[in-house]
Amino acid sequence: MRTFGVEEELLIVSADTGWPLPLAGAVLDAVARSGTDSPPGPDFTTEFKQEQIEVNTRPCGTAEELRAEIVVGRSLADAAARTVGARIAASGTPPLMHTTPTEGDQRYSTMSRRFGMVAREQITCGFHVHVSVPTRDEGVAVLDRIRPWLPVLLALSANSPLWNGEDTGFSSYRTQIWSRWPSAGPAELFGTAAGYDETIARLIRTGVLLDEGMVYFDARLCRHQPTVEVRIADICLRAEDAVVLAAAVRALVETAAGDWRAGIPAPAVRTDTLRLADWQASRFGLRGALLDPATGIPRPAAAVVEDFTHHLEAALDDAGDLPLVRAGIARILERGSGERLQREAFGGGRASDVVAALVEATHAHGRRPEREPLD
Fold it and tell me: Which are the contacts of 205, defined by CB distance < 8 A and separation ≥ 6?
């Protein structure tokens, strides 16, 4: 059974005003104080902006293990944020925001100087799923075969309709902000691990990117561990949805690897079509049409999502995740992703009301972790 884990990028916000707060260092210090002599759990780190914190789960074997890691991570981060007068919210973009030069480390400072307003406005939160692969050859084969399905994951996760206090009209405006980076979005077919390496080297030789860490494809090989990293999704508002999407990604990887072993070629979908599929999912989420992964023709989102689930059925069944994912996706289709809750909360025109609703939903299924209380 493949192991899997997730990175959750979360906002640090004022409980009173809803504005993002540059308190990542203080939150991490509070987490560290709470973790003395406690059992292992998620790791916490800074992100591009000090208004964010990243929670990384350990590799997990089952969806239930992953759910526990996600819930504990969100709970610990929020408990730490409370000690400095803040809260933790899961949203792809902050409903209220301002351009800010605050960064997490020297590398991020260099990026800010080089990329100007793109960096100053880059306060977005993604959901990255890591799935283990035994070899880089298999990892690249997986990347080539999952490309057409990634926009479906974006639609299911969409959780960023607001920007600077306004409804953008997009379900995932995070995707539009993120797409300003020069390497963001879908990638071409790589063919082999050597082809992947040459693509990365060619991009870095241009001098546009700072380093390999700035290769922001929708999915890529992880540099530090033997995993495929699927990066297209918004941070999920609800922990239960995060588990469902992660389990679907693991099945997507397993299905692609099986096709590779069976000699089934990667779908020859053009990258420009995939870029439009990303845009369509970003704009409408589950509220309209998605582009069919095989034909590129618009179809009702529910029909494309059903094809997605059917594509994964055998792998989900083998992992014991089929009931979880089927029920979870049906629930998302019925009540919507995070973007619907945000728009409903914005009905009165106050972005601070949206942030309050986000905070509540982020921790609705949480429980107190088995750690010492924070002081």
Answer: none
Tokens of 169: 């009209």
Cα-flanking dihedrals φ and ψ of residue 58, to 5°?
-75, 160
Tell me the CA distances in angstroms from 5 to 50, 67, 148, 230, 246, one per residue in order: 24, 10, 22, 11, 8
Give the Cα separation of 37 and 289 in Å (integer). 51
The percent of residues in the chain predicted with pLDDT above 70, rounded, is 95
Is there a contact between 100 and 166 (Cβ–Cβ < 8 Å)?
no
- Condensed to tens digits (0 to 9), the pLDDT of residues 221-247 reads 999 999 999 999 999 999 999 999 999
- DSSP one-letter code for 317: H
Res 368 pLDDT > 50: no
Give the DSSP letter string of 115-139. HHHHHHT----EEEEEEE-SSHHHH
State the Cα–Cα distance between residues 218 and 203, nearest whole angstrom.
16
- Find the angle CA(276)-CA(335)-CA(357) to the nearest 5 degrees: 95
Once rounded to an integer, what is the mean pLDDT over residues 16-38? 87
pLDDT recorded at residue 1: 87
